[in-house]
From TrEMBL:
Function: Essential for recycling GMP and indirectly, cGMP.
Domain annotation Guanylate kinase-like: ranges: 5-182
Entry keyword set: ATP-binding, Cytoplasm, Kinase, Nucleotide-binding, Transferase
Listed name of the protein: Guanylate kinase
Binding site for ATP: G12, P13, S14, G15, V16, G17, K18, T19
PANTHER family with a match to the protein in the record: GUANYLATE KINASE, GUANYLATE KINASE-RELATED
GO cellular component, one term: cytosol
Entry keyword annotation includes Transmembrane helix: no
Entry similarity comment: Belongs to the guanylate kinase family.
Family annotation (NCBIfam families): guanyl_kin
Annotated Gene3D superfamilies: Guanylate Kinase phosphate binding domain (3.30.63.10), P-loop containing nucleotide triphosphate hydrolases (3.40.50.300)
Length: 202
């Protein structure tokens, strides 16, 4: 008996801590792989091509769109973002669950295109804390103002997703995301019986 691998998509306002949560989950679960997004934006300090994002020029990104190499893509604050297909499909074939950190538009798009997806909306503890997080990661003031203004609209979208977690204390957030993953792996709709060992443990 085994379960069918699925997508775990963390969504929420920019700066809410999605990437940090993903990194902690990956440390704890060797059976989960990370979907690295592609973008045309400039790398932030300490970001590495092929680890944090695939940093592409606009011409290359548009070629990927034409070649249908992306699950989804969008323009966010003037930059292109997208989810590459190739590595994600390979992870699924190998039996891994795949975790994503996406904006709201990207998360909605992935869920609409692939049914075997769970979505977790991360809320910031407060506007003030969100602003501090954006400042810490080096966002420019004009970008921070735009993103704070978007928070109200993005909060309204939270109930379109499967789960909602307020990301205040990181350790508590990790435990909640882990609990969701464990429970989802036991969902009857995901369970498949093996002809060799139909009573095997999931």
């Amino acid at each position: 008996m085994y379960y069918e691998p699925f997508f775990i998509v963390l969504v929420g306002p920019s700066g809410v801590g999605k990437t940090t949560v993903v990194r902690e989950i990956l440390k704890l679960h060797g059976d989960i792989k990370y979907s690295i997004s592609a973008t045309t934006r400039t790398p932030r300090k300490d970001e590495v091509h092929g680890r944090d994002y695939y940093f592409l020029d606009i011409s290359t990104f548009k070629d990927w769109i034409k070649e249908d190499r992306l699950y989804e893509w969008a323009i966010v604050y003037g930059d292109y973002y997208g989810t590459p297909r190739e590595s994600v499909d390979e992870f699924l074939k190998e039996g891994y669950d795949v975790i994503f950190d996406l904006d709201i538009q990207g998360g909605s798009s992935v869920k609409s295109k692939r049914g075997n997806t769970i979505t977790v909306f991360l809320l910031p503890p407060s506007r003030e804390e969100l602003r501090r997080r954006l400042l810490r990661r080096g966002d420019k003031e004009d970008i921070i103002v735009k993103r704070i203004k978007e928070v109200e609209r993005e909060m309204d979208a939270a109930f379109r997703f499967d789960y909602i977690i307020r990301n205040g204390v990181l350790e508590e957030t990790i435990k909640k995301v882990e609990a969701i993953i464990v429970a989802e792996r036991q969902r009857s709709k995901r369970i498949r019986l093996s002809s060799q060992d139909p009573y095997g443990r999931v």
